[in-house]
Amino acid sequence: MPELPEVETVRRGLAPAMTGAVIAQADVNRPDLRWPFPDGMAERLTGQTVLGLRRRSKYILADLSGGETLLIHLGMSGRMLVSGDPLGQFAHEHPQAEKHDHVVLHMDNGARITFNDPRRFGAMDLMDTATADQHKLLSILGPEPLGNAFNEAHLIDAFDGKNSPIKSALLDQRIVAGLGNIYVCEALFRGGISPTRKAGRIAKPRVVALVPIIRDVLSEAIEAGGSSLRDFRQADGELGYFQHRFDVYGRENEPCRTQDCNSVIQRIVQSGRSSFYCKSCQT
To answer: For residues 89 and 85, what is the distance between their CA atoms, to the nearest angstrom?
Structure first.
């Protein structure tokens, strides 16, 4: 499942081709993905100017001139691909239509935006822009980890009295929005905190230090174009490269990269998800 850096990378890739352009035609080639599409989605999108693209957690939000916002979730295998960009930022000609091209947006500037999703775990919805933050998928979200609302005081308060492992706490989207398994593993390694430690029992100075670590990990991943695990691709079809910098994720039984550490990376399962960490460096 793409995490915050992958979604932000896709948003940045879409913005030059979509922002300020009109959706000349919207093709909706099936009635649903993970959930049914909203009624009349093709008609409601056609003729709309894209005022801007935002990201909230793992969702891309396209604000439209008619007062609605298109919500996009990539799911497990969804891709938003740009072709025919007149701004010259993409070299791809319009490809032949593929079986899993479920939604295609033909922009008036000559660009084509294709949502391809073989497994159909992605989602799209339309909502009133003015009340977008009340949408059922957005209303439960905590602060953005790269925003000012995610700070030391917030994390200390969120962890207070929590008996769940810190790994589970950081994956709780009500505490911080957009964090996923990969980047929590990496952040906890840099913070020297075991994923099994109870969140409410971690000393406040260690919690305080975790805030900038989380921001650094996410920022570095965004600059590297995300991590190309399984199905993820950027909007121009290229791979992300942050996976080459992983310190722990996916490195079971490989040597720890900390200088003078002789341990290997361990893998355990927490709530059905793999956690990777170094028992010597993370306590």
So the answer is: 7
Identify the burial level of 53 via C-beta atoms within 10 angstroms of its C-beta, where 0-12 means exposed, 13-18 middle and 19 or more buried: buried
DSSP 182-211: HHHHHHHHHHT--TTSBGGGS-HHHHHHHH
Other C-beta atoms within 10 Å of 5: how many? 26
Helices then strands, counting H and E runs in the chain, come out as 6, 10
Q: What is the C-alpha separation between 283 and 280, in angstroms, rounded?
A: 7
Task: Give residue-wise pLDDT tens across range 119-153.
Answer: 899 999 999 999 999 999 999 999 999 999 999 99
Over the chain (283 residues), the average pLDDT of each successive run of 10 is: 85 91 97 95 98 96 98 90 69 70 94 91 96 96 96 97 96 95 95 98 97 95 61 44 71 96 97 95 97
Angle at 78 between CA 38 and CA 114, to 5 degrees: 70
Cβ atoms within 10 A of the Cβ of 130, count? Answer: 10
Task: Tell how strand 123-128 and strand 273-277 pair up.
Answer: unpaired
The residues assigned a catalytic role are 2-3, 58, 273
Asked whether the beta carbons of 81 and 111 are under 8 A apart, the reply is no
For residues 33 and 76, give the distance between their C-alpha atoms in angstroms, rounded to a whole number: 12
- Residue 158 CA to residue 169 CA, distance in Å, equals 9
Name 22's bridge partners.
49
Q: Is the Cβ–Cβ distance between 190 and 247 less than 8 Å?
A: yes
Amino acid identity, position 158: A
| Three state DSSP letters for 53-83 | EEEECCEEEEEECCCEEEEEECCCCCEEEEE
Which residue is listed with tokens 């100075």?
205
Give the bridge partners for 127, in sequence order. 69
Secondary element (H or E) of residue 217:
helix 204-223
For residue 86, the tally of other CB atoms under 10 A from its CB is: 13
